[in-house]
Amino acid sequence: MAGCAAALSSFFFEYDTPRIVLIRSRKVGLMNRAVQLLILAYVIGWVLVWEKGYQTSDSVISSITIKAKGVALTNTSELGLRIWDVADYVVPAQQEDALFVMTNMIATLNQQQSTCAELPDAKTVCTSDDNCTFGSIHVHSNGVATGRCVNFNIHVKTCEVIAWCPVEDDTYVPQPAFLKAAENFTLLIKNHIWYPKFNFSKRNILPNTNATYLKSCVYDAKTDPFCPIFRLGQIVESAGQNFGQMAVKGGIMGIQINWNCNLDRSSSHCLPKYSFHRLDNQDSEHTVSPGYNFRFAKYYKDANGTETRTLIKAYGIRFDVIVFGKAGKFDIIPTMINIGSGLALLGVATVLCDIIVLYLMKKRLYYREKKYKYVEDYDQGLIDTFRNE
Length: 389
What we know:
Layout: H1 2-13, H2 26-50, E1 55-59, E2 61-69, E3 72-76, E4 80-84, H3 86-89, E5 98-117, E6 144-151, E7 157-165, E8 186-195, E9 200-203, H4 211-216, E10 229-231, H5 232-238, H6 243-249, E11 251-262, E12 273-278, E13 293-301, E14 307-330, H7 332-345, H8 347-360, H9 364-371, H10 378-388
Parallel strand pairs: 11-14
Antiparallel strand pairs: 1-14, 2-8, 3-4, 5-7, 5-14, 6-7, 8-9, 8-10, 11-12, 13-14
Helix pairs in contact: 2-7, 2-8, 8-9
């Protein structure tokens, strides 16, 4: 109880005030200056210079449009001699901040709604009608079962379905890619950016660019880093990928545009920087359903007026354009805040030296005696003096 009373008395009736003590010690003095220099280097070098702590910043707002160019020629037994242009291989025609280029396909021609044999698999192979259930549909079926067992070919029987016939057979993906010439197609990327806080706007087609230059230039990181036209093969290769392999089953490529601008300098120094990365899983050998594909159909009516369609399972590369960046400009408020924070950090040097001097050095008791001085209450001291006299 006496100890608790003494602690409470000390808490309520004692007051601590700093005392300045000059310690002449080479070790402590050098350590104090070294810590101060480190703090100053951090504040000036890192906070103010590298991180530009004297600036206020704003995030980029952007809009993107993408146009593809290129023509390919194919000659197959199924489709014959055919020219492919942008309207054929860009599906759909418009996407938000992205563009899909078809590089491979499985085409099922002249489909009509009728009855036909289902593709053979563990659930569709049959020997008699008893193996087929009328109206049944499973996840991978192409239609609704009629309950009949019919010949798929001379070797196999499968359950008959009501579907778009003949049903699609996508067990074999063409290799090499059907549109391997897409490697030489190009993308024109138009990117407008705006920093609303500074009312600053710019686009990736630079002011000194003219129509003649745009018709002939192709982006190259070393020789022409500001050309907004990109060859598909070069985009894929810049990401460390092989276009021929990627074109077979498709994939997703990211085109990153970085707008980091120091608006204390001239606006001509605010320039885009491009980088390329593959965004989908690249380990196709250990991934279920690798690549990128989807289906679409083209409908028409035959000579008899029957609705007919061509079903296309399209494999290709989707190019996603991702814009990010930050702009900075001098502002007195963050400058004063960071300078004030830096000056406050200088107190860390004093705290660190006090800990070493008062608790770790051999003469810590001597330094502690010089550091702290105990003074009684002045009025109480006068009373005690008069009593003694």
